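okkk here we go again. third time trying to get the zinc ion bound version out, last two times i messed up the smiles copy paste (missing a bracket lol). double checked this time i swear
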Amino acid sequence: MKNSDIAFKYIADRLVQFKSVELLDDVQLSDGLLDGSIAGAAVIACSDMGWLLRYVCSDPDANLHLFQNFGHRTDSGGFVETVLDKRLETIIVYGHSPCGFAKYQAKEAPGEDSDWLEVGRRGVLEEMLRMLEESRIGELAANEKLRVRVHGWFYNSESQHLEVFDPVRKSFVEQISRLDYEPRIKFVPDQGLVGER
Ligand SMILES: [Zn+2]
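finally!!
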């Protein structure tokens, strides 16, 4: 097994111990926000994903709070505070390839990894784990009555598909989205380094 596979498996094994980590795809997010079964959601994405954030529902009536920063860090830009203040129950960490942050990380640990897809996917899991272990969101997520759920997404620019973390399979699974063919999907413009829609 490659070093990068071992590192991914290690972090995935730790992450799936958290019951709040579930599979949620783009269709479930959009349908849930529009039919009210998801009361509110927060998405933290990487700033260098550009001005199009594919697969994120941007219906103006949806209670969706979008953040972008370098490396989709949940510990800056008021992300945690917004989740707490607005009692958002659905949280998505959204990474991508090719990602400048993943390349920066790899430079910090030379020789360990040069597979940007693997580094990027693992970065999503690392951020989910950091949030659950170190922030107040983790405390809320541990309270099952509150139904806080945490999800990991990864946009693979090579396949041009969304991949969604499946805690049962402990891996990202590719989504062939119906939303690609639906008129109601819209794109959310980039808000800069840190922003809220
Ligand atoms: Zn990035």
